[in-house]
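Risk register update: the risk of archive-format incompatibility is retired. Evidence:
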Amino acid sequence: MRHTAPTTRSVWKTHEETRVEDPFRALGYLGILAAFCVVFSLTWIEVCGLGPSTVAKQLVASGMQIPGYRRSGKAVESILKRYIPAVTVLVGVIVGLIAGGFRFLRSFRLWNGNLACRWNNLPVL
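Archived output:
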Protein backbone atom coordinates (compact mmCIF):
# COMPACT_ATOMS: atom_id res chain seq x y z
CA MET A 1 0.00 0.00 0.00
CA ARG A 2 1.39 3.35 -1.02
CA HIS A 3 1.27 6.21 1.49
CA THR A 4 1.13 9.77 0.26
CA ALA A 5 1.42 12.96 2.20
CA PRO A 6 -1.83 14.87 2.60
CA THR A 7 -2.19 17.90 0.42
CA THR A 8 -2.34 21.29 2.03
CA ARG A 9 -5.90 21.64 0.74
CA SER A 10 -7.03 18.69 2.82
CA VAL A 11 -5.10 19.72 5.94
CA TRP A 12 -5.80 23.45 6.06
CA LYS A 13 -9.27 24.90 5.83
CA THR A 14 -10.07 27.72 3.49
CA HIS A 15 -11.10 31.15 4.73
CA GLU A 16 -14.73 30.46 3.84
CA GLU A 17 -14.82 27.24 5.86
CA THR A 18 -13.21 28.87 8.90
CA ARG A 19 -15.50 31.89 8.72
CA VAL A 20 -18.64 29.79 8.64
CA GLU A 21 -17.60 27.16 11.17
CA ASP A 22 -15.94 29.46 13.70
CA PRO A 23 -17.33 33.02 13.62
CA PHE A 24 -15.62 33.91 16.91
CA ARG A 25 -12.23 33.23 15.35
CA ALA A 26 -13.18 35.44 12.42
CA LEU A 27 -14.26 38.25 14.75
CA GLY A 28 -11.04 37.80 16.73
CA TYR A 29 -9.08 38.14 13.51
CA LEU A 30 -10.95 41.35 12.65
CA GLY A 31 -10.33 42.72 16.15
CA ILE A 32 -6.61 41.99 16.06
CA LEU A 33 -6.29 43.43 12.55
CA ALA A 34 -8.14 46.60 13.58
CA ALA A 35 -5.95 46.94 16.69
CA PHE A 36 -2.77 46.64 14.62
CA CYS A 37 -4.12 49.24 12.19
CA VAL A 38 -4.80 51.64 15.08
CA VAL A 39 -1.28 51.18 16.47
CA PHE A 40 0.18 51.70 13.00
CA SER A 41 -1.89 54.83 12.38
CA LEU A 42 -0.91 56.37 15.74
CA THR A 43 2.74 55.59 15.04
CA TRP A 44 2.44 57.00 11.53
CA ILE A 45 0.99 60.29 12.85
CA GLU A 46 3.89 60.77 15.25
CA VAL A 47 6.65 59.70 12.87
CA CYS A 48 5.43 61.83 9.96
CA GLY A 49 5.09 64.97 12.04
CA LEU A 50 1.30 65.14 11.87
CA GLY A 51 0.74 65.23 15.64
CA PRO A 52 -1.10 68.09 17.36
CA SER A 53 2.03 69.99 18.41
CA THR A 54 3.62 69.94 14.97
CA VAL A 55 0.40 70.89 13.19
CA ALA A 56 -0.19 73.69 15.72
CA LYS A 57 3.27 75.11 15.03
CA GLN A 58 2.60 74.99 11.29
CA LEU A 59 -0.76 76.73 11.65
CA VAL A 60 0.64 79.50 13.86
CA ALA A 61 3.57 79.97 11.46
CA SER A 62 1.15 80.34 8.56
CA GLY A 63 -0.69 83.12 10.39
CA MET A 64 -3.87 81.28 11.29
CA GLN A 65 -5.62 82.37 14.46
CA ILE A 66 -8.65 80.88 16.18
CA PRO A 67 -11.21 83.57 17.08
CA GLY A 68 -11.49 84.03 20.84
CA TYR A 69 -8.03 82.57 21.56
CA ARG A 70 -4.61 84.14 21.82
CA ARG A 71 -2.26 83.79 18.93
CA SER A 72 -0.12 81.06 20.46
CA GLY A 73 0.72 77.50 19.62
CA LYS A 74 -0.53 76.18 22.95
CA ALA A 75 -4.13 77.29 22.33
CA VAL A 76 -4.22 75.74 18.88
CA GLU A 77 -2.48 72.61 20.16
CA SER A 78 -5.03 72.16 22.94
CA ILE A 79 -7.86 72.24 20.39
CA LEU A 80 -6.07 69.88 17.99
CA LYS A 81 -5.35 67.41 20.82
CA ARG A 82 -9.10 66.84 21.07
CA TYR A 83 -9.50 65.83 17.45
CA ILE A 84 -6.33 64.41 15.88
CA PRO A 85 -5.91 61.33 18.14
CA ALA A 86 -9.64 60.51 18.02
CA VAL A 87 -9.81 60.76 14.24
CA THR A 88 -6.60 58.75 13.92
CA VAL A 89 -8.01 55.90 16.02
CA LEU A 90 -11.33 56.00 14.17
CA VAL A 91 -9.67 55.86 10.76
CA GLY A 92 -7.36 53.05 11.91
CA VAL A 93 -10.36 50.96 13.00
CA ILE A 94 -12.22 51.66 9.75
CA VAL A 95 -9.21 50.72 7.61
CA GLY A 96 -8.71 47.53 9.63
CA LEU A 97 -12.36 46.51 9.24
CA ILE A 98 -12.34 47.26 5.52
CA ALA A 99 -9.13 45.28 5.02
CA GLY A 100 -10.47 42.35 7.04
CA GLY A 101 -13.80 42.45 5.22
CA PHE A 102 -12.12 42.34 1.84
CA ARG A 103 -9.92 39.54 3.10
CA PHE A 104 -13.01 37.55 4.02
CA LEU A 105 -14.60 38.27 0.68
CA ARG A 106 -11.31 37.47 -1.07
CA SER A 107 -11.80 40.58 -3.20
CA PHE A 108 -8.25 41.85 -3.28
CA ARG A 109 -6.67 38.44 -3.79
CA LEU A 110 -8.99 37.48 -6.63
CA TRP A 111 -8.70 40.89 -8.26
CA ASN A 112 -4.91 40.97 -8.03
CA GLY A 113 -4.65 37.33 -9.06
CA ASN A 114 -6.80 37.91 -12.13
CA LEU A 115 -4.75 40.93 -13.12
CA ALA A 116 -1.47 39.07 -12.64
CA CYS A 117 -2.73 36.08 -14.64
CA ARG A 118 -4.01 38.22 -17.48
CA TRP A 119 -0.81 40.30 -17.52
CA ASN A 120 1.38 37.19 -17.77
CA ASN A 121 -1.02 35.33 -20.13
CA LEU A 122 -1.69 32.61 -17.55
CA PRO A 123 -5.00 30.83 -17.14
CA VAL A 124 -7.29 32.39 -14.56
CA LEU A 125 -8.42 29.88 -11.92
